[in-house]
Design a protein that fits this description.
The complex is a heterodimer of chains A (about 140) and B (about 400). Chain A is mostly beta strands and about 140 residues long. Chain A has one helix and eight strands. In chain B, the strands form two sheets. A nine-stranded mixed sheet of chain B has the order 3-2-4-7-1-8-11-10-9, with helices on both faces. Chain B has a two-stranded antiparallel sheet with strand order 5-6. The chains are: A mainly beta (about 140), B alpha/beta (about 400).
Chain lengths: ~140, ~400
C-alpha cells in the first residue's frame, strides 16, 4: 500500500522534466534562451518570441498562493480528503501559475497571498512539485 | 456596422425530452424524443431538416448522444453537420448552426445537447494516458472536477471583491424558488439561506448547493432562416447577436484574470455585434453549473460593474421573476437540472414567446440573453421576440 496518491501523471517528451527534475531538489520551468522568459505549460515554441530555443531551466521554487480550494469531495480515488489545492504564482514570473497541493500547512492557515516554497513528493518515477509555507515566513 | 450574419436566423422550434435523475433511457432515445418535438414545434418534418449540430459530439468523456446516431436513427439527409468540443462553449453548437443556416448549407438545422449524467457516468475528466492538455497539470493534484477549478476563481473573487457566501446563496435560492414553477425541475423543495449555508462542503467555498444537479435529458432547437418566420406556428425568436470570443488563454488555470473567465471575452464580443445594450435585456438565462459562474456572467455582460456581482444579487430581489433582471426562471441547472447550457436556451425562447406558463415573467419580454459555460468554454446569444 503506497502512502502517496495515484497522481495520473501523463508525462510526455516535452514536459517529463517538470515531473522528474526535482530529483536534484530544484523546480524547473520551460524557458526561452532567446528572450529569457519562462512559460507554462511547456510548448515547443516560445509563446512570446517564437524562438525554438526553449527548454527546462531551474527556478527558485518560491511563489505566492494566488488562490486555493479545500476539496472535501472524494472525486478521485486515492486522494484522502480534505486536501488543499492551490494555484501558485512563481516568483520569476507571476503570470505563471502552478497547480499544486499545499502541504505542511493547516487548512485554516492557508490564505491568498501566502508565500510558499516548493517541496517534492517522490511518487514512483516522479518527483511531484508540491508547495509548503516558506521557512523564512 | 454591417448587419451581423446571425440576424438572418431565427429559432423556429424547441423541444425537450423528459428530464430526470435516473430515467434509464439511452441518450439517443431522449434525443429522438426532443428532436421530433422540436421539428414539430417548428411546423416542419424530418425531411425539411438538412443540418445537425451538437455539443460536444462523439469521442469525448461527455456522454449524451452523437450527431451521427441521431442522423442515422431518423435517416436525415443532410447538407451540413457538426459536433465538436473545441468551440464557444455548449452554445457553440448553436453559433455554428446559425452560421450554417445564414450562409446557406443548412436551412433549417437542428441543434441538440443530450445529457445522461443522472444515470450514467458523471461529466468528469479521468486520469491516465491521453489526458487533455487542459487538465494534465490539474489531475495529478487530485482535482478532476470543474467544481475544484471554479472554486479557485470564486475564492479569488471573494478575496478581491469581498463577495460572500450569502451572495452566492442568493443565486442558489433564486434557482430553487423558480424551479417550483417548472414541472420538469429536479429539485423543487424550498431552500432557505440556512439550508444553503449549512450544506455539506464540496470544494471550498462551494458546498453542495453551489453545484448543479446531474440529470438525464435532451434539449433541441431548430434554427431556420428568418424568411421562414411568417410561417412559424409559434412566435419566431430572432438571433440578434452571438458572443463567441476567447481572447485570453484557453486554460482553466492560466487565464490572465482569476476573478473572471472566458465569459469576459464572449460577453464583450456579444455587445460588439449589436446596438442593444444590457439595459435592453428583459430576462437573463445564465449558466449556473456553479453559483459563482452566474455571478461572473452577470458582471461580464455588464448588468453591474466588475466585482459588483455580489451586491447585485444580494437578497435576491433584483434577480427574482418580478425584479429588474429575472434570472434563470426555470430553476437553472442548480435545481432544474444540468442540461449543459441548453436549458437556458429553451427557457429564453419560451419566455420570449410568452409561453412559459406559470413562470412567465410579466411585461411582455422582448429581449433575452442566454449564456453558457465556465473556464475556457464560453458563449452567449442575444435573442429577440420576432426577427432581429
Amino acid at each position: 500500500m503506497s502512502d502517496v496518491p495515484p497522481r495520473f501523471i501523463d508525462a510526455d517528451d516535452i514536459d517529463r522534466f517538470y515531473w522528474t527534475a526535482g530529483a536534484d531538489g530544484r523546480l524547473h520551468l520551460h524557458h526561452c534562451d532567446d528572450c529569457d522568459r519562462f512559460h507554462h505549460p511547456p510548448t515547443p515554441v516560445c509563446p512570446y518570441c517564437h524562438s525554438r530555443a526553449v527548454g527546462p531551466a531551474p527556478v527558485s521554487g518560491l511563489g505566492t498562493v494566488a488562490t486555493y480550494t479545500i476539496n472535501h469531495q472524494p472525486f478521485m480515488p486515492g486522494f484522502e480528503v480534505p486536501f488543499a489545492f492551490a494555484l501558485v504564482e512563481v516568483d520569476e514570473d507571476p503570470t505563471i501559475r502552478l497547480g499544486t497541493n499545499i502541504v505542511n500547512c493547516a487548512h485554516d492557515d492557508l490564505h491568498i497571498g501566502m508565500p510558499v516554497q516548493v517541496t517534492f513528493e517522490i511518487n514512483g518515477e516522479y518527483h511531484v512539485p508540491l508547495f509548503e509555507p516558506r521557512e523564512d515566513h | 456596422m454591417a448587419e451581423p450574419l446571425e440576424r438572418q436566423t431565427i429559432i423556429s422550434g424547441i423541444g425537450q425530452s423528459d428530464i430526470g435523475r435516473r430515467l434509464h433511457r439511452s441518450g439517443l432515445d431522449l434525443t429522438i424524443e426532443a428532436t421530433l418535438a422540436a421539428i414539430d414545434d417548428a411546423g416542419l418534418t424530418v425531411d425539411d431538416i438538412d443540418g445537425i449540430s451538437t455539443y460536444p459530439g462523439s469521442g469525448g468523456p461527455f456522454g449524451g448522444a452523437s450527431g451521427a446516431e441521431l442522423h442515422d436513427a431518423l435517416r436525415f439527409s443532410l447538407n451540413w453537420r457538426d459536433g465538436a468540443l473545441e468551440t464557444s462553449g455548449q452554445l457553440g453548437a448553436v453559433h455554428k448552426a446559425v452560421l450554417a443556416v445564414a450562409a446557406g448549407p443548412a436551412t433549417p438545422g437542428v441543434v441538440f445537447r443530450t445529457v445522461t449524467e443522472g444515470s450514467g457516468k458523471p461529466l468528469r475528466a479521468g486520469g491516465g494516458g491521453g489526458m487533455p492538455a487542459a487538465f494534465r497539470y490539474l489531475i495529478p493534484y487530485g482535482v478532476s472536477s470543474a467544481a475544484n477549478w471554479i472554486a479557485c476563481y470564486a475564492q479569488r473573487h471573494m478575496h478581491v471583491y469581498g463577495t460572500t457566501r450569502e451572495q452566492l446563496g442568493a443565486i442558489a435560492i433564486n434557482a430553487r424558488t423558480n424551479a417550483a414553477g417548472n414541472p420538469k425541475a429536479i429539485y423543487t423543495d424550498p431552500m432557505t439561506m440556512d439550508d444553503y449555508l449549512h450544506c455539506r462542503p464540496i470544494s471550498e467555498p462551494f458546498g453542495l448547493y453551489d453545484c448543479d444537479v446531474p440529470c438525464d435529458g435532451s434539449t433541441v432547437v431548430v434554427v431556420s432562416h428568418r424568411d421562414y418566420a411568417p410561417d412559424c406556428p409559434n412566435p419566431a425568436v430572432g438571433v440578434n447577436a452571438m458572443g463567441t470570443a476567447l481572447r485570453g488563454r484557453p486554460s482553466w488555470d492560466q487565464f490572465d484574470d482569476l476573478t473572471t473567465m472566458a465569459m469576459r471575452d464572449s460577453a464583450a464580443s456579444l455587445w460588439e455585434r449589436t446596438e442593444l445594450t444590457a439595459a435592453d435585456v428583459d430576462t437573463a438565462q445564465l449558466y449556473d453549473g456553479f453559483t459563482w459562474l452566474t455571478m461572473a456572467w452577470i458582471e461580464a455582460l455588464g448588468f453591474c460593474g466588475r466585482g459588483e456581482g455580489g451586491p447585485f444579487v444580494e437578497g435576491g430581489h433584483r434577480i427574482a421573476p418580478d425584479g429588474e433582471l429575472p434570472l434563470n426562471t426555470w430553476g437553472g441547472q442548480l435545481s432544474g437540472g444540468r442540461l449543459h447550457g441548453f436549458g437556458f436556451l429553451h427557457e429564453g425562447v419560451l419566455q420570449l414567446r410568452h409561453q412559459a406558463g406559470d413562470r412567465q415573467i410579466a411585461g411582455d419580454p422582448e429581449v433575452a440573453v442566454v449564456a453558457a459555460g465556465g473556464g475556457p468554454e464560453s458563449g452567449a446569444l442575444l435573442l429577440t421576440r420576432g426577427v432581429s
